[in-house]
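Researcher: Please predict.
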Amino acid sequence: MKIADKLGLKDEIFARMVVKTKMLFSNVIGHAAELHYEKYLKNSKIQFTKADTDNHFDYIVDNKKEQVKRWESAGTNDKFLAINLTQTHGDRSGEGNFYHKKSFDKLVAYDVLFKSFKKFDISEIETNKRFKDYIVGKFKIKRETENLLDNEQKEFLNLIKVKNKDYPDALEKYKSKLNLNYLDILKKVCNLTLEEIDSLFTDENFRLVTGAKGFAAEEHFNVLLEKNKLNYKQDKDMYSKVDHWVGKHRVQVKIPNLRAVTNEKWAFKTHKSHGSGVKELYTTDEFDFVALFIGFNMNEKIDRYLPVSVKNEFLIIPTKDLPEHPKYPGHLKRVSSFNKDYYKVNDLSLLI
């Protein structure tokens, strides 16, 4: 896979990273829904226009704005297909968490493993009880005889419903039972070829690419620790602020924030992906060290988001060295920076 090669990973390692990282796996599946619908439109010779990134709809078909969604795992079962209709970016507080009744005209709802889809007018979706100009955050469709789940769908749905900490072990059982490798699972669940999955990782889907880079950095940190014979374990909780435990040390793996990097300084984000104000910030005691992966050699003239080459290079930064937020004592600044020659590359002495 081209994306795996660009991230400095073997195909099977890349696939393992995706399917074992529930958050990344969910994002990949979400983008796969759009590709499936696009394939359907092309095969059916239906004219369409693809919307720009961050619009509240995905396609224009017959002058109608269409939003494509895949099943919501927690609410989908033998009786209902559930679709999550909360927004994924922007202001997610209050009414900003929901779609306006004029955000799109039709919903394209894909069932488990992309075996079928149904279309609904937005008028068929219930009104939000709190915000009358908006639709509900979860749309449930009662199953009829023709769209009951088969055994293959049930098996995967049972896997993806498993709680975060137990998910890696459940995945291994699923993998063993079906006698699949990680690449097989990735293809099976997306119902796409590797080439088609590869095509999801584009500038247009920059959030997906950025997420993959972050998780790839964790894979490279594994390699560095193993090479130096340091015992470690990765935290299984996807919401944990700790990525690795190296002995008693809590380590969070980061990649540079390219917008803030200069010729003299490295910079990286020290805030969460959601929330606002103090709720967006890390506290100073959530992890002990940052392992900053500086091994992605970026050249925006060639590729804005993916590296042109990769080296296994990290800087180990004690959390106590990071600046506190000027307005919120006990919390880290949103972005931390330091001189490029301040820390030695791959100096793991602090973790021993």
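Model: DSSP finds eight helices and 16 strands in the chain.
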